[in-house]
UniProtKB/TrEMBL annotation, chain A:
Family: Belongs to the binding-protein-dependent transport system permease family.
Keywords: Membrane, Transmembrane, Transmembrane helix, Transport
Record organism: Mesorhizobium shangrilense
Keyword field contains Ligase: no
Domain ABC transmembrane type-1: residue ranges: 85-291
Membrane-spanning residues: 28-47, 91-110, 122-142, 168-192, 213-232, 275-292
Membrane topology: Multi-pass membrane protein
PROSITE patterns reported in the protein's UniProt record: ABC_TM1
Keyword DNA repair: no
Name recorded for this polypeptide: Sugar ABC transporter permease
From TrEMBL, chain B:
Alphabetized InterPro entries for the sequence: BP-dep_ABC_trans_perm, MetI-like, MetI-like_sf
ABC transmembrane type-1 domain residues: 113-303
Similarity remark: Belongs to the binding-protein-dependent transport system permease family.
Main localization of the protein described in the UniProt heading: membrane
The UniProt record lists the keyword Cell cycle: no
Protein name: Carbohydrate ABC transporter permease
A Pfam family that the UniProt record links to this protein: BPD_transp_1
PANTHER family: ABC TRANSPORTER PERMEASE PROTEIN (PTHR32243:SF52), MALTOSE TRANSPORT SYSTEM PERMEASE-RELATED (PTHR32243)
Length: 301, 318
């Protein structure tokens, strides 16, 4: 990077000679951030890659030994880990699917002029402003079988949505949908408001049906931003820890991130938990990559 | 849209407004439940059927902020009934929860709340500051491997926190950053930085380069042009980015749980730790949650006009 190529002005000009050179400014602005992210993200990752081949335990001062791929082999052969992945997959599909449908649906409703639009939009964002841990805690009260308002309204009497093994995961997903649909709504609104109005006017002149207008104009133009919402929410849902950890202690709600936390900070099996972390990381990267490829396709259309 | 509307469209609009109202009720009911429980007498927090209308009181907040005294004599019901509302705040049911005369001892909550404020504000300032500079660098100068670098920056956000948490915990323990404010500030800055760079690049790309060129011709240096021309133009973007960084840092739970235990603990891990076994006082937890929501709600409300723009990531502008 010896030569700085300026794309705004001639480096031989008078302006470039005054004060810091553009090369200096570029380096001073960019390099600290990149270094910072390397130290606090890449460095730890290399560390944990190292640990994943050992039987190291962070809370004991005993010597550790290199065990090669044993951690990975054992994890991948462990039926219980796969159960955690299946739970996570179910959770991601239900909660992200719900958020996309509800969030986009609300955005369609809000995408018109009506009184207090700004206030209504801000109020609807309140759920995502709360800490997931605190949300989890409070929904325990809402779901309570004996005096929770949800059971009362649904007439469920003493059926515990959270304590029943079959419904617990969906109860957690519903809370997640409540919390994060506003995020999808916000992104969708940004997308909807960017659709050029003249397209709708043209469609109206052609007497196009509203279904046709929706599927041929609205949807294709909003698709890229819906994909971005999908990528972010899938990534986040796959890593969900706090909400489920606080809300429920059922074995049927043990998401992979919770399993990871237990392995690392309750059983102090640092080596094995690092290996599991890597398996999760590779999965997230793979899923994100598929999405990003698809996003680029959607954008090209 | 000054176009003439058909009666069908008007009817559809009415239906949509009703639907928006229904959505509002469903989404805000849990928030209302938190807020109202924070002002309930303890006995009304867990009644069947759930209590909707009640005489609000401030007792939960007094309990949240102070260490309660062990049992004192119950107060005479008539004295209690005659007391004004600000005095009722120190009674739970009919019992005094603060000592008379002595200055009350504070509970850990104010400390945790202050920690949250210090850590969230500082890390937001760092993340937005560094992110703005870096975004400017990427936006205005040619950088070798720009696309790869930007993807690397984004990828730091894809990792599950627990993946980074194990080695971070060991690193922090080795250098003594465990359970310190600085430790959490650094972590949250790292966490928000990728987001901040991506958002800010979208905003700065939109500011015409001609503005700076004109300033340079007028004799400004590049730095002066950046501070006097670009930064004011990017103010909207900076505000939106700050809202998102603040929300994330304010609410973070996993790292705070793992990396802190007393000195630097923030409120998100603290509030759930107050759930006792069996006799949980939900009014106190609701009061803590309600207060915790306030700063971020106010902050968001003040900057609400920038949010829509902020969320589009430059994805649809081209």
């Amino acid at each position: 990077m010896a030569v700085s190529v300026l794309n705004t002005l001639d480096p031989r000009s008078r302006a470039a000679a005054r004060g810091w050179s553009d090369l200096t400014i570029r380096n001073v602005f960019i390099i600290p951030t990149v270094l910072f992210l390397i130290v606090f993200n890449i460095f730890p990752l290399i560390y944990s890659l190292g640990y994943s081949f050992t039987d190291f335990a962070a809370n004991r001062n005993v010597p550790w030994s290199f065990v090669g791929l044993q951690n990975y082999r054992e994890l991948l052969a462990d039926q219980r880990i796969w159960t955690n992945f299946v739970i996570t997959a179910k959770y991601v599909i239900v909660s992200v699917g719900g958020q996309m449908i509800i969030g986009f649906g609300i955005a369609l409703l809000l995408n018109r002029d009506f009184p207090f639009k700004g206030v209504v939009t801000t109020l609807l964002l309140l759920p995502m402003m709360l800490s997931a841990a605190v949300v989890g805690l409070f929904w325990q009260l809402l779901y309570s079988p004996s005096w929770g308002p949800i059971n009362y309204i649904l007439g469920l009497r003493s059926f515990g949505l959270l304590s029943d093994a079959d419904t617990a995961l969906y109860a957690v997903a519903i809370t997640d949908i409540w919390m994060w649909s506003p995020f999808v709504m916000l992104l969708s609104l940004a997308g909807l408001s960017a659709v050029p109005k003249h397209l709708y006017e043209a469609a109206a002149i052609d007497r196009a049906s509203s279904w046709y207008t929706f599927t041929r104009i609205t949807l294709p133009l909003v698709a890229p931003i819906l994909m971005i919402a999908l990528i972010f929410r899938t990534m986040e849902a796959f890593k969900t820890f706090d909400l489920a950890y606080v809300l429920s202690v059922q074995p049927t709600t043990e998401l992979i991130a919770i399993k990871l936390y237990r392995l690392a900070f309750q059983q102090w099996d640092t080596g094995r938990s690092s290996a599991l972390a890597y398996i999760v990381l590779i999965m997230v990267l793979a899923i994100t990559n598929i999405y990003v490829k698809y996003l680029n396709k959607v954008k090209e259309r | 849209m000054a176009a003439v509307r058909t009666s069908g469209e008007i009817a559809f609009n009415r239906i949509a407004i009703v639907a928006v109202l229904v959505v509002m009720v469903i989404f805000l009911a849990p928030i209302y439940w938190i807020a109202s429980t924070a002002f309930k007498p303890r006995a009304l927090a867990t009644t069947v059927p759930p209590t909707v209308l009640f005489q609000p009181e401030l007792t939960p907040f007094v309990k949240l902020f102070t260490k309660r005294v062990q049992q004192t004599k119950p107060v005479d019901p008539e004295t209690y009934a005659a007391a004004p509302w600000w005095e009722k705040a120190v009674y739970d049911g009919g019992e005094r929860i603060l000592k008379v005369g002595d200055s009350p001892q504070l509970s850990p909550y104010p400390d945790r709340f202050a920690n949250s404020l210090i850590i969230a504000i500082s890390s937001t300032l760092f993340a937005v500051g560094m992110g703005t500079l870096t975004a400017y660098g990427f936006s205005r100068f040619k950088v070798k491997g720009e696309a790869d670098l930007l993807f690397f920056i984004l990828s730091t956000r894809m990792l599950p926190p627990v993946v980074v948490a194990i080695p971070m915990y060991l690193m922090y323990r080795a250098v003594g950053l465990n359970d310190t404010h600085i430790g959490l500030i650094i972590l949250y800055t790292a966490f928000n930085l990728s987001f901040s760079v991506w958002l800010m690049k979208g905003f700065i790309d939109e500011i015409p380069k001609e503005y700076e060129e004109a300033a340079l011709v007028d004799g400004y240096t590049r730095m002066q042009a950046f501070f006097k021309i670009v930064l004011p133009e990017a103010a909207t973007g900076i505000a939106a980015t700050a809202v998102f960084c603040f929300i994330t840092a304010w609410n973070e739970y996993a790292f705070a749980l793992i990396m802190t235990n007393r000195r630097a603990q923030t409120a998100p891990p603290f509030i759930p730790s107050q759930v006792g076994s069996g006799l949980t006082d939900w009014t106190v937890i609701a009061a803590g949650t309600f207060l915790f929501l306030l700063p971020v709600a106010i902050f968001t409300f003040l900057l609400r006009n920038h949010l829509l723009r902020g969320m589009s990531f430059g994805a649809i502008r081209k």
